[in-house]
Amino acid sequence: MLLTQIDHIAIAVHDLEAAIDYYRRAFGAEVHHREVVERDGVDEALLKIGESYLQLTTGTRADSAITTFLERRGEGIHHVGYRVDDCATALASIVAAGGRAIDTEPRPGSRGTTVAFVHPKGSFGTLIELVQERLPEQERE
Predict the structure, then answer these.
(1) What is the residue-averaged pLDDT of the chain?
(2) Residues β-bridged to residue 127
(3) Is 124 exposed, middle or buried (0-12, 13-18, 19+ CB in 10 A)?
(4) For the chain, how many structural domains are there in total?
């Protein structure tokens, strides 16, 4: 099995601060990691839930995929992130099984991860993010 666990569920929101405040008041959830990913034009807050995360995310510019999603569909679940041991191997397996890769090869993600996205048209309507955790030897660099 290439999937090791659910890494995160991403929810696109218009107002990130309001969403963080809601999850804090309603569930006692606190931000575990916060990062602006300039490459993707997103601001994200990760709330730790067990061994996984809830990712609240909003666009930081007009050409961001999150901004486009919010304009077309409104707030809600954007994608599911699955943790894998090897992002490149998992991506190749998905393509071999008929899936459609958005990223032709893995790339840097937030919190030092390696990621690749898979198009929802090849994944039964769900945008998938493959997430490879930072390897211990990379943490020393």
Answers:
(1) 93
(2) none
(3) exposed
(4) 1
- Amino acid identity of 118? V
**CB 86, CB 113: distance < 8 Å:** no
| Token pair recorded at residue 34 | 């916060």
Q: Which domain holds residue 110?
A: 3-139
Q: Render pLDDT for 11-62 as a digit per residue (tens, 0 to 9).
A: 999 999 999 999 999 999 999 999 999 999 999 999 999 999 999 999 999 9
CATH of the domain at 26: 3.10.180.10
Please tell me the predicted confidence (pLDDT) of residue 26: 97
Of 49, 48, 56, 105, nearest in space to 78 by CA: 56
Question: Which of 115, 108, 118 is CA-nearest to residue 132?
Answer: 115
